């Protein structure tokens, strides 16, 4: 005890003389409490990731589905998420808790615009079999078999259990554009398309609070993929016309995420095209597009650097984007009045 006091005294003297640390004592923390709090924070964080991922799928799914006829790259989708995709032991204790693993194969999310939802399947339904595939211990095997029947466009007959009662739901998988929507854990207000995926940052999810705003961003990125901007860019980039100034545009450093996902920035013309076709995808998906251009007013307020046009910027300025989107909305309204198919106008030059 005496030694302890001496050490403490010495430490204090040292601190005062060195002026290198806090002046007051550090509060003692019980290890058990620290451990519990750490686990709780990990759990809360994972729950948030899950909720954000589900919101992305909920908002993006009708866009991917209702423009499938415009996509060359399509896939059959079930529109549901399961609690486990691999063997149980591969999940951490916290993942087990958040995904509710160990209680059979369950649906953790059913996308509201999916055929599965319309057939009556709901979150928390326990899946017993799909067509001839019985759910066994081996989750990976189950998903491999499910993948096979999904690819064949077979009608699915799902046997499930809800509140102790068994039921059967039957539906055809949805044909959707094959561009998975990824959640990117990054605080910058950003999104990307790399020709095979769509990525949305957590910063963007926070910024695009209304679903139609998040939908606008997803539809824009889908536009880059459908209009094949990546391969067009590749040939452009040989000519050396690509300048990565996304960071300047958003006022944040985007190097990190674009580095990780290997996405490229597009020219102003491609950005304008993605905005234009994106509005069509939004309308097709059934979103209210009347006020969606306000997204760019909100962006201007939060990121004033995006208001003034600049020849070095890769993106059109926010006033241009606002007006161009409203012009596209007008064009769509005209087509609806004339009962015309909602397909973006082709450049006749
Ligand atoms: Zn873009």
Outline of this structure?
The protein is built from 13 helices and eleven strands. It has 349 residues and is α+β, with helices and mostly antiparallel strands. The strands form four sheets. Strands 5-4-6-7 form a four-stranded antiparallel beta sheet. A three-stranded mixed beta sheet has the order 9-11-10, with helices on both faces.
Account of the 3D structure:
It is a single chain. The chain has 13 helices and 11 strands. With about 350 residues, the protein is α+β, with helices and mostly antiparallel strands. A 4-stranded antiparallel sheet has the order 5-4-6-7. The protein has a 3-stranded mixed sheet with strand order 9-11-10, with helices on both faces. Strands 1-8 form a two-stranded antiparallel sheet. β4 and β5 form a beta hairpin. It is flat and about 60 Å long.
Any key phrases for this structure?
48% helix, four-stranded antiparallel sheet, 13% strand, Pdz3 Domain, 2 domains, alpha+beta, binds zinc ion, 349 residues, three-stranded mixed sheet
**Shape field:** flat
Hetero groups: zinc ion
Helical coverage, percent range: 40-55%
Number of strands: 11
The stretches of 5 or more residues where confidence is low (pLDDT under 50) are 236-263
Mean pLDDT: 84
Rounded to an integer, what's the Rg over CA atoms? 25 Å
Strand content: 5-15%
What is the end-to-end distance? 89 Å
Q: How many separate structural domains? A: 2
Biggest sheet: strand arrangement:
5-4-6-7
Describe the sheet with the most strands.
4 strands, antiparallel
């Amino acid at each position: 005890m005496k030694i302890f006091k001496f050490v403490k005294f010495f430490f204090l003297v040292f601190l005062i003389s060195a002026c290198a640390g806090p002046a007051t004592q550090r509060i003692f923390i019980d290890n058990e409490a620290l451990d519990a709090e750490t686990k709780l924070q990990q759990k809360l964080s994972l729950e948030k990731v899950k909720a954000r991922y589900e919101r992305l799928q909920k908002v993006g799914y009708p866009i991917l589905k209702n423009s499938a006829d415009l996509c060359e790259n399509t896939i059959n989708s079930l529109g549901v998420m399961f609690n486990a995709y691999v063997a149980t032991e591969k999940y951490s204790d916290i993942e087990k808790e958040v995904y509710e693993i160990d209680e059979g194969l369950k649906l953790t999310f059913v996308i509201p615009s999916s055929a599965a939802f319309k057939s009556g399947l709901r979150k928390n339904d326990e899946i017993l079999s799909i067509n001839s595939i019985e759910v066994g211990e081996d989750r990976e095997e189950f998903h491999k078999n499910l993948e096979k029947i999904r690819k064949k466009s077979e009608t699915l007959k799902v046997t499930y259990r809800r509140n102790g009662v068994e039921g059967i739901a039957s539906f055809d998988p949805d044909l959707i554009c094959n561009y998975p929507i990824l959640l990117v854990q990054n605080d910058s207000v950003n999104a990307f398309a790399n020709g095979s995926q769509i990525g949305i940052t957590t910063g963007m999810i926070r910024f695009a609070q209304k679903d139609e705003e998040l939908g606008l961003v997803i539809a824009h990125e889908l536009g880059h993929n459908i209009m094949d901007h990546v391969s067009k860019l590749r040939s452009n980039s040989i000519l050396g016309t690509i300048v990565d100034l996304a960071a300047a545009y958003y006022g944040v450093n985007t190097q990190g995420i674009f580095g990780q996902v290997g996405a490229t920035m597009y020219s102003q013309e491609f950005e304008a095209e993605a905005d234009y076709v994106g509005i069509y995808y939004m309308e097709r998906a059934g979103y209210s597009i009347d006020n969606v251009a306000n997204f760019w007013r909100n962006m201007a307020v939060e990121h004033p650097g995006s208001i003034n046009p600049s020849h070095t910027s890769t993106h059109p300025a926010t006033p241009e984007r606002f007006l161009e989107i409203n012009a596209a909305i007008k064009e769509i309204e005209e087509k609806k009045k004339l009962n015309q198919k909602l397909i973006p106008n082709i450049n006749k030059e």
